Amino acid sequence: MTIVVESLPNEPLFHHILDAFRANPRFLLVYDWIKGTEASCLQLLTDILCMRRRIVQTLPASMFDSRNMIIPQRPFILVLAPGNYDFVVAAFGVLCCGAAFSPISSNLSPEEAIYILELTNAACILFAPEFEEQASAIQQHAASKENGSRPLITIPIASYNELPTPMPHVKIGQNMSMDPQSPGVLVFTSGTTGPPKGIVRPRSIWYTLPESFPSGGVALCFRPAVRGATAMPLVWRAVNGVRTEIISDDTCQIWERLRTGDVTHLNMVPSSWRSFIRYFNEHIDVLPANKRAEFLKGARSLQKPVITGDFLEPKAMKLCRDLLGRHLINIYGSTEMGAVISTTKEQGSIIERCIGRPREGVQVRLSEGDHGDILIKSPMMFTSYLGNEVATRAAFDGEGYYRTGDVGRRVGDQYVLEGRSATDVIRCYGLWVPLQEVEARLAELPYISEAYVVPVEFNCIQQIAALVRLTNVKLPPSLLDIQGDLQDKLQKYKLPTLLRILRNGERILQSAAGKLMRKEIAESYFQTSIKGELPREVEFCDAKAKAASGRRKAWDWAGMV
């Protein structure tokens, strides 16, 4: 019987995969609770080879060089898949072809998808079975816009293929070396402070490999793969030998899975952690003591409870610490940089909004020495904004440091994030106000369960607008009450001057990455009329006018007013 010979790219990623998967063929890499399916190292290796074969057989021969590797002129392949095993297969299959994968949303309109296709010059879309209809709609729309250009090819993702008998002989192709700086992944930003950009990260980001395999652990995944914060960890976990379990994005399901006690990794955005706390208070804390203890014991098996995207207010951070028996790990990063600064599970800093210390190989600089704009240099940095050389050049200073757009300060050997200069820090009465500091102080008030602060232009002045959700209180507080309760916690110029109370069912606008969309929140809840009038649900109280008749503390107005 003829033995089939398959060759993998000659680079650290595939050297590691071949050695690790051969040594641990039955190790379970992915378990999908939704579909009831699982995949071992041997299954994934089989599916990677099948996916690569399907891509090579479907695309025109002109797309490949003599080694059957994608030509560098068109390096991107789009992936339309949920955050599950299909995505993992597609990502590795694309990398195995020498190309870069780019996750796209299943909610894109055909016009939006065409924009991405034109920007990336992608030859094809790999799609999961549940997104066949969306892929077909994009293909049809592309055909109507072709004007003589090459037709778009769609390719179904090849997963759970039957294991061949005999198994092929898989080796590293010595002539299949890759440029570490060539594209390895293309991820689009969430557009928090502007239109989305296509961020190109190099293949070398996949070269950070574990010392041992499997490294152990179980991670839960329940978010779409379109965001870099979900897409890239799906690949890294397979490389590291951390089992990924796919579950529904449902707080009840998360708690039930934690109850078993073997989950070690849980990465969530602030809103998900708030729901996590709320579910415990409403559904678990009221259970009999033995049942309650089961949930807490399971949750305390978490070794890496991570928060990304933004901060939790100190009160919620403490509640998480009490529930989990350990501190949440704050990770600071972005699609451009990856994770560059973080706290640790042992590090319980008392410094509010602390993001910890730089990771290995990361250099941090603050524009004013010990404070100011945060500048980052890292070997894992993105290489370009696709098709936008001007934006790429503007993103770096003269010494190659990336301008994050964030403001921070250094305390000892740790860094503290004060906010995003474009959205989280505003000027009010000519003074700088960190909005998240105001949010934290509001959330400390016993009658407030959630607090969000946005800038709103009213009376020709930038106002500090507070949007709050109340606990079960009989008499809602007035803005004057809130200002009074905050007067010993905040300087006068930081006190909220506008207030709106969230009703049941009203939700806060967030980006796909879990970040507050402050501009959209201001427009939705504090939009003035043509006559300049505030919505009737909004209360106004001028902090400066109130201060003129009230007690004044030292530095209430920063010595400037």
Short key terms for the protein model shown above:
GMP Synthetase, Chain A, domain 3, ATP-dep_AMP-bd_enzyme, 29% helix, 561 residues, alpha/beta, Rossmann fold
Give an overview in words.
This protein is of the alpha/beta class and 561 residues long. The protein folds into 3 domains: 6-26 and 36-204, ANL, N-terminal domain (Rossmann fold); 218-386 and 396-420, ANL, N-terminal domain (Rossmann fold); 427-547, ANL, C-terminal domain (GMP Synthetase, Chain A, domain 3, 2-Layer Sandwich). The chain has 15 helices and 28 strands. The strands form 7 sheets. The chain has a 9-stranded mixed β-sheet with strand order 13-14-15-16-17-22-21-19-18. Strands 3-2-12-11 form a 4-stranded mixed β-sheet. Helix 2 crosses helix 3 (85-96) and helix 4 packs across helix 5. It is globular and about 90 Å long. The termini are far apart.
Return the CATH topology of the largest domain: Rossmann fold
Q: Shape from CA axes?
A: globular
Instruction: Decide which structural class fits the backbone.
Output: alpha/beta
Q: What share of the residues lie within helices?
A: 25-40%
Question: Order of strands side by side in the largest beta sheet?
Answer: 13-14-15-16-17-22-21-19-18
Distance separating the two termini: 88 Å
Q: What's this entry about, in short?
A:
This protein is α/β, with parallel strands linked by helices. 29% of the residues lie in helices and 27% in strands.
